[in-house]
Design brief:
By secondary structure, the chain is mainly alpha-helical. It has 3 domains: about 100 residues, Fumarase C, Chain B, domain 1; about 240 residues, Fumarase C, Chain A, domain 2 (Up-down Bundle); about 90 residues, Fumarase/aspartase (C-terminal domain) (Ribonucleotide Reductase Protein R1, domain 1), CATH 1.10.40.30. Helices cover about 60% and strands about 5% of the residues. α14 crosses α15. The structure holds arginine (ARG). Arginine binds next to α6. The site of arginine (ARG) has 9 residues, from α6. Its main location: cytoplasm.
């Protein structure tokens, strides 16, 4: 087994099972680009401060860049017995450039190093997630704009409630994913703080210029307490929570698309390229992307519970438990990125079945509220109007009628506040266009909202 960089005080070599149990390089090697960027900034600062000589720093930077190239080309040999990404890179640096490579770690600990790496990684990934969220929002925007005239039933309790515009329904999802963007942006403020200089836990006696290192790495600020900085994983928990909520939103969407694409609903056609067939039933077209999105949401919730549980009992400061932050973090980020990308394309490609949605929109006495509002506007107290229309619905059910097929004489049996104009009122178009209030489903409002979104997001 390899000679450990920390091996000085040890008389026995590490047990092979312990190496296997404690290693993280098999998964934390993805931090390599961030680890190297952090090391280059650190060593540049050490030289500026006169802690290292310029030519020493230069050799180290060249060595690190060479290692980065090897990693990118897949030529770097990762060794499990060197534990983690940090030790693998440092050991290789020393092998490449000799003992001067051992000066890289001056005034630094793996504790502030790993905290820095993970922050750089999370910052990078959040920016990618923000772009994916935007393109998903654009897909909803495109659907809303393209199918602005489609009317569908709106539901509460999964029972037909009131007619709404399909566009309004699409823009409800726009709002969810807009909040997700805001949450990630807010998290970024707490992510973008540099721990380097905290060293193992107490800070360091070297005259480091932390602000300078931070500016090289484009951190907004430096951490204010070394003990907190090496043990804080709030930003990991927050990031995974944000991912979990994105998944919750995608899962709600998925559930609706699964329902909508059934024979029973028949509301949408999903693009063929995003569905799969059955190995036995030739007629099948299954919404597997949506089902897997719904299923993978459970994984990401699991990641969130994992990180919250890992941090809950930790005494100050760094404890090796914290190494377990990475797999849930990576899994949550990988899953949410893939799910966002594939669902943006599903949404872009889906086609509402206009006729079917329209005909279902008036089912289930979906205009009953409009009739009650009609009476209330004629001066009947709303509570009474509600009861009267309830009686009308019961009458319709008993006599196999709908509100649309009620005559004016029938209406007047229930209240003499009814005039002929009630008959024109009873249409899904009339119902949606009457809800002309900010946030309402009237076409006029939805068009205004589309315009607002267009300028907010720069969509064309
Ligand atoms: N692989 C470790 C982690 O991810 C790096 C920090 C190790 N620090 C230590 N004192 N053993 O947490």
């Amino acid at each position: 087994s390899e000679k450990k960089l920390w091996g000085g005080r040890f008389k026995e070599s590490t047990d092979a099972l312990v190496e296997k149990f404690t290693e993280s390089v098999s998964y934390d090697k993805r931090l390599a680009p961030f680890d190297i960027a952090g090391s280059i900034a650190h060593v540049t600062m050490l030289a500026k401060q006169g802690i290292l000589k310029e030519d020493e720093a230069k050799k180290i930077v060249e060595g690190l860049n060479e290692i980065l190239r090897e990693i990118e080309e897949g030529k770097f040999e990762w060794k499990q017995e060197l534990e983690d990404v940090h030790m693998n890179i440092e050991k290789s640096l020393i092998e490449k450039i000799g003992p001067v490579g051992g000066k890289l770690h001056t005034g630094r600990s793996r504790n502030d190093q790993v905290a820095t790496d993970v922050r750089l990684y999370v910052r990078h990934e959040i920016n990618e997630i923000l772009a994916l969220l935007k393109s998903l929002r654009e897909a909803f925007y495109i659907q809303a704009k393209k199918y602005i005239d489609v009317i569908m039933p709106g539901y509460t309790h999964l029972q037909i409630a009131q007619p709404v515009l399909y566009a309004h329904h699409m823009l409800a999802y726009y709002q969810m994913f807009k909040r997700d963007e805001e949450r990630f942006k807010d998290t970024l403020k707490r992510v973008n703080v540099m721990p380097l200089g905290s060293a193992a836990l107490a800070g360091t006696s070297y005259p480091l210029d932390r602000e300078f290192t931070a500016s090289l790495l484009e951190f907004d600020s430096v951490s204010r307490n070394s003990m907190d900085a090496v043990s804080d994983r709030d930003f990991v928990a927050e990031t995974i929570f944000n991912c979990a909520l994105v998944m919750a939103h995608l899962s709600r969407l998925s559930e609706e698309l699964i329902l909508w694409s059934t024979e029973e609903f028949g509301f949408i056609d999903l693009p063929d390229a995003f569905c799969t067939g059955s190995s036995i039933m030739p007629q099948k077209k299954n919404p597997d992307v949506s089902e897997l999105t719904r299923g993978k949401t459970g994984r990401v919730y699991g990641d969130l519970v994992a990180i919250l549980t890992i941090i809950k009992g930790l005494p100050m400061t760094y404890n090796r438990d914290l190494q377990e932050d990475k797999e849930p973090l990576f899994d949550a980020i990988d899953t949410v990125k893939l799910a966002l990308a594939v669902n943006a394309r599903v949404v872009r490609g889906m086609k509402p079945k206009k006729e079917r949605m329209r005909s279902q929109a008036s089912k289930g006495f979906s205009l009953a509220t409009d009739v009650a509002d009609y009476l209330a506007k004629k001066g009947v107290p709303f509570r009474d109007a509600h009861r009267i229309v309830g009686e009308i619905v019961a009458y319709c059910l008993d006599n196999g009628k709908t509100l649309e097929t009620m005559t004016i004489d029938e209406f007047r049996q229930f209240s003499n506040a009814f005039d002929k104009d009630v008959l024109n009122l009873i249409s899904v178009e009339g119902s949606t266009s009457s809800r002309n209030i900010i946030g309402g489903t009237a076409k006029e409002q939805v068009l205004k909202e589309l315009e607002r979104i267009e300028s907010e997001e720069g969509f064309k």
